[in-house]
Known about the structure:
By secondary structure, the chain is mainly beta. It has helices spanning 2-16, 42-45, 96-103, 287-292, and strands spanning 32-40, 54-59, 65-69, 75-81, 84-95, 111-123, 129-137, 142-148, 164-169, 175-176, 181-185, 224-229, 238-239, 244-248, 258-259, 265-266, 282-283, 308-309, 311-314, 337-340.
Amino acid sequence: MKKFLVLLSAALAFTSCSDDDFGNANNGLQPVNFSVNLKYDPITFNGQSVNGGSVILTNTNTGDTYTIESGTNGIANFPAVIPGTYNITATKTLTSTEFNTQFGYTPETQTVLFNGAQEQVIINANVNATELKLKTVRIGDLVIKQISYAGSHAQQGAVFRDQFIEIYNNSNETIYADGLCIGQLYGKTSTTTAAYTLASGQFDWSKSIGMTAGSSANTDYVYADYVIRIPGSGTTYPILPGESIVIAQTGINHKAPLVDNSGEPLSVQNPELTVDLSTADFEVYLGDYRLALGEDVYRFDIQNPAVTDMEIAYWGRQGYSSPNKDLIIDNLGRDSFVIFRGDDLNS
Length: 347
């Protein structure tokens, strides 16, 4: 009888053990199969399947990666993926000949790079597939190189009047700046929460009046307080590879004494603390915009006829304009900016 009890106890011990009991590194999570369906941009390339696209899953917690190529049907099948949250990236490069064979016309460059990405994708037993659309990309693009937000000394310099933004051509070809939009994004600078915020304290845009995007309102979009736009016909303002343009708040020499729009003289006690922006490519002048609203021109918004004015594409909807009377950037650096292009800005 004693032998039988010992054997029975041992059997129960073996059948009741699990990976968790042994401190398994994966916490007992069972691997799942996951697939990514790659398609070319449906608007430009009719949503054709991507054959041989490289897909990478990166676990946001551990940094572990999985890499698979898509098949002729555009699907990349990942066996035995540990459940978790992942960032997904995909790329595909076509030569000029391959591009012509695929889409029926010759591209402007010798190679064409496509890519796409999804962030914070949950993978588990209930979520085992996603679709990713690949778009063409230039090898490099225009980027924000510098935001000079701090200004200079409040008493001895130009305070905030010498703020500027620098846009850099980080590509291998000339890019025209015409129509490029720069948006200062709208958000909270505190982490206090309320019924209309996320847990982080930022606004929950899905609760905005008239919002139809659902939860993607907080992940797929950004929201602009104001938007300025570079003028031009499309080929007016080229930026060569490796070159920059400067967009000044006020395109004047801030080292020199001047007279503001109210007739008051302004002097800079220490010119070495500020910069000469009289040779900037563009400046943000709101004088005409404010006059059209029946408001006075801001005293420090001094127009330099030798520097091209930016277009004021959006400064708030009618009756709710941004309180900023000029391109005034938060001098603590809490602003976020985005550059983009759009044919129909109102949409």
